[in-house]
Amino acid sequence: MIRLFLNGLAASAGGGVTYLRNVIPRLAQSADVEATVVVPSSLRREFGEATKIVFVEAPDCRGTLRRIVWEQTQLRELIEDSDANVLLSAGNFALWNSPVPQILLSRNSLYTSADFRRDLRVRGEYSLCADTWIKGWLARQSIMRADVTIAPSDAFAQELARWTGRNITVIPHGFDREAFAGDPSPLPESMQKQIDRAEDSLRLLFVSHYNYYRNFETLIRALPLLRDRLPGTEVRLFLTCSLKSRENPGAYRAESAAALVTELKVGEQVVELGMVPYRSLHHLYRACHIYVSPAYTETFAHPLVEAMSTGLPLVVSDLPVHREICGDAALYFPRFSPEGLADSVLRIRQSPQEATVLSRNGLARAQDFSWKKHVERLLAVAKELVSKNLAQ
Question: Taking the CA of residue 74 as centre, how many other CA atoms within 13 Å lie in the half-sphere pointing to its CB?
């Protein structure tokens, strides 16, 4: 029997919550695992109750550095009280001097991204640049201290290996199509009305909170190009966020993107839905024609798999990780090229046959991702660590 301690305090939104939402039930279903899971108190309801899972609520720490301090001063005692024999740190930062063997999940490419550092300098975000450098140093030290570091893609694992000189284990994140599309709950009425008003439009979708590295500006700059090259066709871009800083998590300032929308006169084309309930998100994918992602750095990107699972053709920036995840289900464009993005959208629009091929390829590709397989491989690593520890 493995007694696993899962530190989920890094989950606040997006991929972190998605990860715990899918991994925790599968840990509960594993016959030879008992787990203690630490989560922020504000998210405790997200995970319900599960057999063989003990939840520990921790105070919500505003800011990553405060969370790290809390972890380094409080987690050790919680681990010892739980009688765990392996620690899974799910948020990029390891517990220094862990009392048990430690598996670190590293899934933040901002610490290694030259594009992100350049972007921050151009924006004059010097405070955020310093904050990222500090966190990057801690993330690198964490990899040095963990017994095993796991990355969600080969592309990111290679990046981490170059950065640290350490061996990195690859376990791709999973996907469960039945769970993702199984909730019949409709979209909120206000959102459905916005979609209905665009019934006769070419509908593009981008699922993300506003942040810099998802490269919203390149996507926005592509809209007037599409408008000019598709006379008589309305184009609508649906965003699952608001271009207002206070309505997005993190320290990213959305005002420049909002100003660009005004400057390019594409306000009617950009539909800011705000945060869409995850249980209803599959309805939004199905209501659109093409999924787009101009991100200039990624480690995995769950929305790509979600989009493929609903049959959407994809237009994504040409990153190694995007090619790894999407394969032949997407068209690729240079990551800072509005023209390349627009060309790819037009290519799909003008060739229903190619759109059908991309859709079919995506449906097949999405089946390659499995949370069940992810957890099985994760537990195999944990068992190996426990065996080595007992043998010493």
Answer: 14
**Residues sharing a CB contact under 8 Å with residue 228, sequence separation 6 or more, in sequence order:** none
Q: Of all residues in the chain, what percent carry a pLDDT higher than 70?
A: 98
Per-position DSSP letters for 326-380, written without gaps between them: HGGGEEEE-TT-HHHHHHHHHHHHH-HHHHHHHHHHHHHHHTT--HHHHHHHHHH
Q: Does the CA dihedral 218-277-367-381 come out positive or negative?
A: positive
* DSSP string of 229-260, one letter each residue: HSTT--EEEEESS-SSGGGSSSS---HHHHHH
Domains of the chain in start order, with CATH, are: 2-174+370-386 (3.40.50.2000), 177-366 (3.40.50.2000)
* Alpha carbons 325 and 313: distance in angstroms, whole number: 13
Helix (H, G, I), strand (E, B) or coil at 125: coil
Q: Count the Cβ atoms, other than its own, within 10 Å of residue 6.
A: 25
DSSP letters for 296-325: S--S--HHHHHHHHTT--EEEE--HHHHHH
Q: Which element (helix H / strand E) includes 39?
A: strand 33-40
Residue 14 is predicted with a pLDDT of: 61
Distance, in Å, from the CA atom of 120 to the CA atom of 244, rounded to the nearest integer, reads 18
How many Å apart are CA 15 and CA 2, to the nearest integer? 26
Distance from C-alpha of 146 to C-alpha of 232, rounded to nearest angstrom: 57
* CA separation for the pair 207, 169 (Å, rounded): 28
For residues 347 and 309, is the Cβ–Cβ distance under 8 A?
no
Cβ partners under 8 Å of residue 188, min gap 6? 276, 277, 280
Global confidence as pTM: 0.93
- Which sign, positive or negative, has the C-alpha torsion 222, 256, 294, 182? negative
CA 106 to chain centre: 12
Instruction: Give the pLDDT mean for 367-381.
Output: 95
Of 162, 74, 105, the closest CA to residue 381 belongs to: 105
User: Could you tell me the pLDDT band of residue 12, with boundaries at 50, 70 and 90?
Assistant: low
